[in-house]
């Protein structure tokens, strides 16, 4: 069987299969289906986002509690420093897992906060440090787990950062400003959503 025979065999008129429905009714049905689909899609996204935020709140209280984490890693430091580098291996794994969870939780909290209209925009939460040392006002932005680890090593603020991250998602959802003073480094830890 050649290609021409196959095409001739498959060639049939679709109009014969369809009943005689006026074109206006078909267009009205398509437009109506589109207008019904969009609100259901938006409502579904919002329900999913609400469900994820609720799930993260439960996990945050039970499994990823910042104060309990600090108690666990308190004796697992090499030199008593306050950096990620000064932790021993089991404590590093726990802190990294905690930071990964918090980055994900902050992403969902930022998406849920400040929603306007029907659209849910993919907003990101950035942690910023305003460094006041040597008369300079320098802002640095941190967004993912590696950035947070780098921040804790650079500013010697692991414990403060864990406590700040523990409280931050609730403050984002309430749309409150939340700043934390890093005493040793003369810097301010804050957040912004973009």
- Overall helicity: 55-70%
Mean pLDDT: 82
* Poorly predicted residue ranges: none
Task: Please identify the structural class as seen in this structure.
Answer: alpha+beta
Number of DSSP E strands: 4
State the domain count. 1
| Helix-strand pattern | HHHHEEHHEE
| Sheet of most strands | 4 strands, antiparallel
Radius of gyration: 27 Å
**Strand line-up in the sheet with most strands:** 2-1-4-3
- Cα distance spanning the termini: 61 Å
The coarse silhouette is elongated
Q: Helix count, per DSSP?
A: 6
Beta-strand percentage range: 5-15%
Explain this structure to me?
This protein has 194 residues and is an alpha+beta fold. The protein has helices at residues 3-10, 23-62, 66-73, 89-112, 145-155, 158-173, and strands at 125-131, 138-142, 180-182, 187-193. Strands 2-1-4-3 form a four-stranded antiparallel β-sheet. The mean pLDDT is 82.
Give me a quick take on this structure.
By secondary structure, the chain is α+β, with helices and mostly antiparallel strands. Helix content is 55%, strand content 11%.
What keywords describe this structure?
194 residues, alpha+beta
Which helices and strands occur, and which strands form pairs?
Elements: H1 3-10, H2 23-62, H3 66-73, H4 89-112, E1 125-131, E2 138-142, H5 145-155, H6 158-173, E3 180-182, E4 187-193
Antiparallel strand pairs: 1-2, 1-4, 3-4
